Amino acid sequence: MEVISFHVDIISRRTGRSAIQMAAYCARDKLYSDYTGKSYDYTKRQDLVYHEVMLPDYAPDNFLNSEVLWNSVEKIEKAKNARLARSLIIALPKELSYDSHIQMVRQYAQEYFVRQGMCADISIHDKNDGNPHAHILLTTRSLDCDGKWMGKQRRNYLLDKNGNRIRNPVTQKYRMGRSIKTNDWDDPERVEEWRKGWAGACQSWFNRCGISKEITHKSYARQGIDREPTIHLGASVKALEDHGLMTDRSKKNRDIKMRNYERDRLIFREHIEKEREREWERDR
């Protein structure tokens, strides 16, 4: 059973990252950031297969433009450690065509993100090197019915038994409890839900196309399989490999694959020996 490759990351100012720069990279476009006063140009890269911004209800139409959308995000976020966006990198099935990739990514983004209120900036890359993948850049704030960004948290006033706010007799201010998040997109179970949903989408498309392969979102360890997972190489490592250069990460993957091969061969050999022993016992 094949395990999906599904990586989730946060674009945060705390780590010096820019939502505009990430959007430009994914879309292979040139975008200007009002916040940094810089342009980010990735138009020389030639591996873009598809790009689209998908919007939920109430989102302004001008958010269909990536530069407008992510400049709006960077403007509303004031903190130096603000979480600007959530970034997903998803490996696409090599067995399927470009058209199938586009349809499955759009359907998946619509169901799991856009319907939940997120703006989804999706891009598909393929350099014909056996590594087609999708980038999905997601907003972290909800929009209200007027298309305005909402706060990430709302005030939570403490109430008495009659449902009235409790006033502090000293400060004459209403007592506050812990703030309440306006959405649950940061909850850990959301990532599990998204991973499971993508595995289901892949399985559905394989079944539709008559491809005999089983897909799961569970790691080998969670499946109870004694198998070491490979690591994600990334675009920079793949580029070095294309030029015939060995990297530590690619060497580590080759070592992992060799260990898995030797383990599989040993298990197969033990299986054959047990079958022979059972046949010998039957023939006695």
Global structural class: alpha+beta
The CATH architecture term of the largest domain is 2-Layer Sandwich
Sequence stretches where pLDDT stays below 50 over 5 or more residues: 219-225
Mean pLDDT over the full residue set: 82
Q: Which H/E pattern describes the elements?
A: EEHEEEHEHEEEEHEHHH
Query: What's the CATH class of the largest domain, please?
Result: Alpha Beta
Structural shape: globular
**Biggest pleated-sheet summary:** 5 strands, antiparallel
**Strand residue content:** 15-25%
Span between N and C termini? 38 Å
> How many helical elements?
7
The percent of residues in helical segments reads 25-40%
Structural domain tally: 3
Itemize the secondary structure elements and their pairings.
Blueprint: E1 2-3, E2 6-12, H1 19-27, E3 30-33, E4 38-41, E5 48-54, H2 66-76, E6 83-91, H3 98-112, E7 120-125, E8 133-139, E9 153-154, E10 180-181, H4 188-208, E11 215-216, H5 220-223, H6 235-242, H7 248-283
Parallel strand pairs: 1-11
Antiparallel strand pairs: 2-6, 3-4, 5-7, 6-8, 7-8, 9-10
Please give a structural write-up.
- The chain has 284 residues and is α+β, with helices and mostly antiparallel strands.
- 37% of the residues lie in helices and 18% in strands.
- The chain contains seven helices and eleven strands.
- Strands 2-6-8-7-5 form a five-stranded antiparallel beta sheet, with helices on both faces. Strands 1-11 form a two-stranded parallel sheet.
- β3 (30-33) and β4 (38-41) form a beta hairpin.
- α1 (19-27) packs antiparallel against α2 (66-76).
- The longest helix is centred in the last third of the chain and has 36 residues, at 248-283.
- 20% of the residues are buried.
